[in-house]
Amino acid sequence: MLYEGQHQITVKIRILQIGNLTIHGRSHSITPLELLPGGLVFLCPWDIPMNTNVKLGYEMDDQVDYLLLTGNIKSRGLCDGHPLYQTDFDLDSEQKTRMIGMLNRMMFSKMDTGKLRYYN
């Protein structure tokens, strides 16, 4: 459960292209289970076609930075009756650095600096 002031990353997915046809559709929220600098494991309420002609976009937004990434679905499975997908992102070095920054902001926002103890 997130509390006020906690940092979170919103992840959405959208279809960017089918074959040679570019699509400007809306984004759909997904449930990220694991977010890594190079990929994502997520639950989706609908089936995503696993076809090389379908190009998907992944939107990452942490209210400090916004990334629109592309990637390939590596595998599909089921988790509690919902489709589970594992993807690899197509990242350049700048996008990877920005993704790591998002993950760092999320981790450090959960730290309570008042509870840190320093040892000599």
Question: How is the topology of this model organized?
Answer:
Blueprint (H helix, E strand, L loop, with lengths): L9 E9 L2 E2 L5 E2 L1 E6 L2 E5 L10 E8 L4 E14 L2 E9 L2 H17 L11
Antiparallel strand pairs: 1-2, 1-3, 1-6, 4-5, 5-8, 6-7, 7-8
Helix-strand string: EEEEEEEEH
CATH class division: Mainly Beta
Q: Biggest sheet, open or closed, and with what strands and sense? A: 8 strands, antiparallel
Kindly state the number of beta strands: 8
Strand content: over 45%
Structural class: mainly beta
Q: Can you identify the CATH superfamily?
A: predicted glycosyltransferase like domains
Question: Which percent bin holds the helix content?
Answer: 10-25%
Descriptors for this entry?
single chain, 120 residues, mainly beta, Thrombin, subunit H, 8-stranded antiparallel beta sheet, 1 helix, 14% helix
Provide a descriptive summary of the structure in words.
The chain contains 1 helix and 8 strands, in the order ββββββββα. The termini are far apart. The chain has 120 residues and is mostly beta strands. A hairpin with a 2-residue loop joins strand 4 and strand 5. Strands 1, 2, 3, 4, 5, 6, 7 and 8 form an 8-stranded antiparallel β-sheet that branches. The longest helix is centred in the last third of the chain and has 17 residues. It has a single domain, classed as predicted glycosyltransferase like domains (Thrombin, subunit H), CATH 2.40.10.220.
